[in-house]
């Protein structure tokens, strides 16, 4: 069958050229006579793959030399505990801005290990906006301030980072990593589950400033200590080898085919504008996020009628536009238009929405 346009929030679409290259190398990676899937992570061949993946990520994201790049497992959700166990270690305090389900879960996990506090939240309006903050709202002795940069479920994003002064800023960038340029030096730590924009499921990227490594709480398990993985160059145990290899291919695609993150941002803005412009002009469909906080990656929308929403999801799926159902906590629809979603996919969605609106007035 023909490939569908997959609007899933993750795992999500991968670039077609990446899939073709991975398929071509599946049985024999560069003359090694074996697949990356069956290759020893201690081999010279694999060592080059993981080193090349790191070098590409550093180049594409312009990561400063005083930051470590780690390829870990356990998804973004494991980072909720790792961040607290490793960073909430001086005054045992951390401030969280709660802008959705994932920030809320991160806060709840951190509260198991110390004085983690929600200093701002947009829960009052179902997380449809990013709350305004200023430096005075953060405790001066907080060990870090935590945000979720792009909110996958609710479709909001920080266009301007909170001013935390000298307090390290930690951000979950799972659904916006490598979608546009990001000044890494403004953060103490960044992490991302890679299955939305950078790879298949299985690998979690952590970018951490070196001075924040090595002071984990005494109760921290060996495998949840950043120092364990930093000292071993992400090879303390068997890493998610194939997902790291796919991440390398995606980073090659961004660098060589797209032309870097400035170009990637242009393409993402063009796709998002097409969809948001339609939503703003439609009589049936409405976006749920305040315009100034709209994400380029995740676009939630509703008709206002649950039965009509269900009909739309069913008919769009039949038309080859799949995974448009909104998250179970909010309902409606959501189009995740990550890096690999082509402009033509968003055009096809908008054309279908116009047709659906005309037929269901």
How would you portray this structure in words?
The protein is α/β, with parallel strands linked by helices and 361 residues long. 35% of the residues lie in helices and 16% in strands. It has nine helices and 14 strands. A seven-stranded mixed beta sheet has the order 2-10-9-8-5-3-4, with helices on both faces. The chain has a three-stranded antiparallel beta sheet with strand order 11-12-14. Strands 1-13 form a two-stranded parallel ribbon. Strand 3, helix 4 and strand 4 form a beta-alpha-beta unit. Helix 1 crosses helix 6, helix 2 packs across helix 6 and helix 3 packs across helix 4. The model has no long low-confidence stretch (mean pLDDT 97).
Please outline what is shown here.
This protein is 35% helix and 16% strand.
Q: Main beta sheet, described?
A: 7 strands, mixed
Poorly predicted regions are: none
Strand content: 15-25%
Major sheet: arrangement of strands: 2-10-9-8-5-3-4
- Class per helix and strand makeup: alpha/beta
What is the distance, rounded to the nearest whole angstrom, between the alpha carbons of the first and last residues? 32 Å
Shape: globular
Q: Give the mean pLDDT.
A: 97
Distinct helical segment count: 9
Number of strands: 14
- Secondary-structure element order, N to C: EHHEHEHEEEEEEEHHHEEHEEH
Q: Helical amount among residues, as a percent range?
A: 25-40%
Indicate the radius of gyration in whole angstroms: 21 Å
List the helices and strands and how they pair.
Layout: E1 5-6, H1 16-24, H2 44-61, E2 67-72, H3 75-87, E3 93-98, H4 101-110, E4 115-121, E5 145-148, E6 150-151, E7 156-157, E8 169-172, E9 189-193, E10 204-209, H5 226-231, H6 241-258, H7 261-281, E11 286-287, E12 298-302, H8 306-318, E13 321-322, E14 333-336, H9 343-359
Parallel strand pairs: 1-13, 3-4, 3-5, 5-8, 8-9
Antiparallel strand pairs: 2-10, 6-7, 9-10, 11-12, 12-14
Helix pairs in contact: 1-6, 2-6, 3-4, 7-9
